[in-house]
């Protein structure tokens, strides 16, 4: 019995030992780093900068030096004259130059003159400091080159009329070849186009060329266009050259006549004096008549330039000529036929005769 009781007690004691609960172990850890308490920041008043006082040097007054000559020159009377009107001279006192009786009087002030010279020098210097302003340029297109005669082309032309620079007038010429477009594909002005221009009179002394301006061109089909281009010679020099009449006999013939008349009257006077005949009045009258004739003919016209008809001149195109409003292009034959004719050398126009 004792053994059974001990066995029962021992088994019950093990079960209670196994069912005993123990309290959980709590572990305390530091998750964030330690930060000390922040101190409160208080604003600090700005420290004023120390003021430095520079000593001011004392200037001694400069004694004024009296110049007796300068003072007397300032007090001297001034005379003002008017060149436009005949007036008596006006006397002005140097003590009070502001009061002026004559409006043509200008007070002389050396300070004003020096200031004006300085301002002119400053303006000249400022003008030298200014750079040259150059405007930019943008590229563009010429347009449809099939209908444009570009500026800078030279068109030969044959004069129809002669020119004389004594009087202003008009002239005309005929273009002796076809004028092509800028790309050389289209004939814009056919052979036989008439061009009309104008020229001014009054060739200056020493000049040998006459300026001519071509105004308008008219094609055989009746198409007109304004040229407004200058005339040149065959080499492109501006103006027309030609035979220049300097009017030599008109210029020096009167002087030769006066000298001949003077020599003749002197010779006749000496012969008459040797024979005892007095003819002073007659000889003086002849010399006076010759002098009057020379005086009347002294106004010689300027040189005259003569240009004959039939000579070859040129037209310098001064602007782009646009024919797009007048002409239109159309296909007359296919490209393969044009190529075949070009290869075979057949440049004759196609016959329009219909055969059966």
From TrEMBL:
Gene3D superfamilies the record matches = Type IV secretion system, VirB10/TraB/TrbI
Pfam families hit by this protein: TrbI
The membrane-topology field of this record reads: Single-pass membrane protein
Location of this chain's protein in the cell: Cell membrane
Q: Name one GO cellular component term.
A: plasma membrane
* Residue spans crossing the bilayer: none
Compositionally biased, Polar residues: which spans?
90-102, 111-120
Q: Which family is it part of?
A: Belongs to the TrbI/VirB10 family.
Q: What is this protein called?
A: Type IV secretion system protein virB10
Q: List the source organism.
A: Brucella intermedia 229E
